[in-house]
Amino acid sequence: MIKHRMVGLVLVAAATGSQAITVLSEGFDNVSNLPAAGWAQVNNSTAPLGTSWFQGNAGIFAASSGAPNSYIAANFLSTGSAAGAISNWLMTPVVTLDSSAMLSFLVQTAGDGFLDKIEVRLSTSGASTSVADFSTMLGSFQASTLSGWVGLNYTMGIINVPTSGRIAFRYVADNVSTAGNYLGLDSVVITSAIPEPATYLLMGLGVAGLMLRRRFSA
């Protein structure tokens, strides 16, 4: 009986021995520093290409916190074609993700009657910046009016084993003459729950205890 209790205690400790860690946190205080931090941009809008993602414009709306312009934005000038399509990608640095990982961020649209839309996509192809690798859609958000800052969260339960990859934010519009005005992102955070180092030892002891119990019961 005592042996059974000891094994049970070990397994309970192992099951609860985890902590949430911050894998990535970006408030976009200075967008010019993003490339050095591993962020990537790909503008696949209709040619001639326009602007990529840029420092937020406080004159349109202010950041959720900090300096008024401390967010990142994209707008209808992503394409230089008067009736072109927008497909403007912002990709996080390479991160290691597992089923416990969670992405959270704030998004705001200026709209003004033009539909602003963002897609959130996942690539598990390491450092790749090929848009074809971002085939997993985590979700999307759209609005045609000034939305205010909206908080969104997405989990990575589809990832079976720890995998390196990127998450992409795709600003998208089918025809810039009727859709696409201005959109901002702020406070991008990725967290993950990982076992504490001591947990692996406890889990090992638990398995060993179960093996001993089987031997003595045989």
Describe the structure.
With 218 residues, the protein is α+β, with helices and mostly antiparallel strands. It folds into two domains: 1-17 and 196-218; 22-194, Jelly Rolls. Helix content is 17%, strand content 38%. It has two helices and twelve strands; from the N terminus they run αββββββββββββα. The protein has helices at residues 2-16, 197-217; strands at 18-26, 40-43, 54-55, 72-75, 86-91, 95-97, 102-109, 116-123, 136-143, 150-155, 163-173, 182-195. The strands form two sheets. Strands 1, 3, 4, 7, 10 and 12 form a six-stranded antiparallel β-sheet that branches. Residues 1-17 and 196-216 have low confidence and may be disordered.
Low-confidence stretches: 1-17, 196-216
- Which architecture of the largest domain per CATH? Sandwich
Radius of gyration from CA coordinates: 23 Å
Major beta-sheet overview: 6 strands, antiparallel
Number of domains: 2
Rounded to the nearest angstrom, the distance between the terminal CA atoms is 16 Å
CATH class designation of the largest domain: Mainly Beta
Strand content: 35-45%
Tell me the number of strands.
Answer: 12
Derived structural class = alpha+beta
Look up the CATH topology of the largest domain: Jelly Rolls
